[in-house]
Amino acid sequence: MKEFRKIVDNYTFHGYESGDGNLPSIVCLHGMTGDSKSFLGLNEYLKNNFHLIFLDLPGHGETSSLKLEEDYKFSSLVKRIYSVIQKVTNEPFYILGHSWGADLSLNFAVTYPDKIKGVILIDGGYVFPEHVVDMAEERALSDWIEYIKSSTYKSWDQVINTYQEYTTKQWDAQLNSIISSNFKKNGSNYVLSADRLSLLATIKAFYHEPCSATYNHIKCPVLLFHSTIPDIDPSRNRGIKKIKESIKNVQVIGIANTKHNIHWDNPERVASEILTWSQDEYSFN
Fold it and tell me: Which CATH homologous superfamily contains domain 2-283?
């Protein structure tokens, strides 16, 4: 993969390109506490068919944190990210997002309808927070403050033991590489690399600009992958129902034996479905 750094509004954005630049582009946006390496597994299966752009979002990986909390609002953040993408490609592109990245992807489709060929959502943009029972903004912020505080590990083995619970895939070198830059050393401990302000400002953004507010404005095709563990998830079911009712051209795929990080658990299947979907004549604008 080819590494890049682009400066927009005096902020440095870091990321990678993979694949032939003459192929259709997919811009990939990761979830909270992750970074561009989250998509290493997908890269192996998509790089021969697409030009892939992996971006570290603000306060994550090697991208600068933004100074103002309001800059993390989805409608604001996508404009800054778009300026970064324009420095890599001027062509229309597909946009793929996992979790937080999925919500940003939906906002991209609304803000830049002539530039987005299609939206790919990986277990995001359809549940949190609207369909989660008893998850008011104050509670979500409190939970995240506690999560940030508790994400301190005395050894890398402790990190792996925790993150093994986030995937159904047996831990391997690739998964190790995926999360390697999600943590940094603080004295003798490993702590989250992601910036605290960025994380909490993002949680607020979920409430101020809920994903469903974008649905009626989306004209391009949408592909949603959802997890299947746990088997019964009322929040997930409500979210799927809402997105199916609200977006005209949406395909919903549940992949067996997957948790929230579907692209870690079964990157080959996710990539295969993306390729099939993108080749469907109805998926092109």
Answer: Alpha/Beta hydrolase fold, catalytic domain (3.40.50.1820)
Tokens of 186: 């603080």
How do residues 49-87 score in pLDDT, each as one tens digit? 999 999 999 999 999 999 999 999 999 999 999 999 999
Q: Please state, rounded to an integer, the average pLDDT across all residues of the chain.
A: 96
Domain ranges of the chain: 2-283
Nearest to 94 by CA among 2, 39, 24, 31: 24
Q: Look at residue 284 in the predicted model and tell me its pLDDT.
A: 45
Please tell me the distance from the alpha carbon of residue 78 to that of residue 17, in angstroms, as a whole number.
19
Read off the pTM.
Answer: 0.97
Distances, alpha carbon 186 to alpha carbons 19, 167, 254, in Å: 36, 26, 39
| Cβ atoms within 10 Å of 93's Cβ, excluding its own | 22
Contact assessment for residue 38 and residue 177, using Cβ atoms and an 8 Å cutoff: no
Query: How far apart, in Å, are the Cα atoms of 158 and each of 46, 152, 153, 179, 190?
Result: 32, 9, 6, 13, 9
Q: What would the 3-class secondary structure string for the chain be?
A: CEEEEEEECCEEEEEEEECCCCCCEEEEECCCCCCHHHHHHHHHHHCCCCEEEEECCCCCCCCCCCCCHHHHCHHHHHHHHHHHHHCCCCCCEEEEEECHHHHHHHHHHHHCCCCEEEEEEECCCCCCCCCCCCCCHHHHHHHHHHHHHHCEECCHHHHHHHHHHHCCCCCCHHHHHHHHHHEEEECCEEEECCCHHHHHHHHHHHHHCCCHHHHCCCCCCEEEEECCCCCCCHHHHHHHHHHHHHCCCEEEEECCCCCCCHHHHCHHHHHHHHHHHHHCHHHCC
